[in-house]
Amino acid sequence: MSIPQQIYCTAFQGLRRIATGLLPDVALKSKAAVDEGGEPVLLFDDETSRSIEVDFRGTASDVLARLGQGISTSPAVSAPAPVPVAPTAAPRGPGRPKLGVVAREVTLLPRHWEWLGSQPGGASVALRKLVDEARRENEGRDRARRAQEATQRFMTAMAGDQPGYEEAGRALFAGDRDRFRQMIDNWPADIREHAAKLAGPAFEAV
Questions:
Q1: What share of the chain is helix, strand, coil (3-state, %, to 5)?
Q2: Which of 27, 85, 127, 161 is the most buried (most CB within 10 A)?
Q3: What is the side-by-side order of every strand in the sheet holding 16-22?
Q4: The whole model's pTM is what?
Q5: How far apart are CA 63 and CA 45, in angstroms?
């Protein structure tokens, strides 16, 4: 398995940001910082703020080799229960292109099935259209929610003991950009800047 090249992350040693960029590059800079000693180094996924576990033992080549065997990220919240998978996928007609369709169990009331069955193309086509429409309509809110979660995760890990932490969290989820910036204004510069960057989409108009 090759080294994951498309994971962007940021590393902190104590309250100081030491690297940001693609995981292999950040891992090497973090390895150098670890070898120099001092406070522990923490790596965060730039999209989710989940911590990335990297084994810094051995040489730089050893670190990169282990990255190529896979990495682990700490979960933020418990994952939802998996949806039961139907035993077989929907049959394909002659010449029908492979769309990556996955058959899963869906539980609806009879009136829902009746309405879906009356739609052009049947239930499957109607469901896909409904999901696509909901995704488009909720795109802004979903982006804001992901930004809120990532920012809160980072602040909890790196700024939980900073003044105004709790009030900053309330402002974040209330969509109050000015209050949020006010609460983090006296935080260490690197922590403040990264938190503000993560929080940006949370304050965009939906």
A1: 50, 10, 40
A2: 27
A3: 16-22, 8-13, 41-45
A4: 0.68
A5: 18
Q: Are residues 64 and 26 in contact, defined by beta-carbon separation less than 8 angstroms?
A: no
Instruction: Count CB atoms within 10 A of the CB of residue 40.
Output: 9
Beta strands at 8-13 and 41-45: parallel, antiparallel or unpaired: antiparallel
Residue 181, amino acid: R
Residue with tokens 């259209």: 129
Structural contact between residues 89 and 103, judged by C-beta atoms closer than 8 angstroms: yes
Element (H, E) at 13: strand 8-13
Beta strands of 31-115 (E only): which ranges?
41-45, 52-53, 72-73
Give the Cα-Cα-Cα angle 142, 153, 67 (nearest 5 degrees).
100
Predicted confidence (pLDDT) per residue in 59-82, tens digit: 999 999 998 765 555 544 333 444
Over residues 23-49, the mean pLDDT reads 96
Whole-angstrom distance, CA of residue 10 vs CA of residue 49: 9
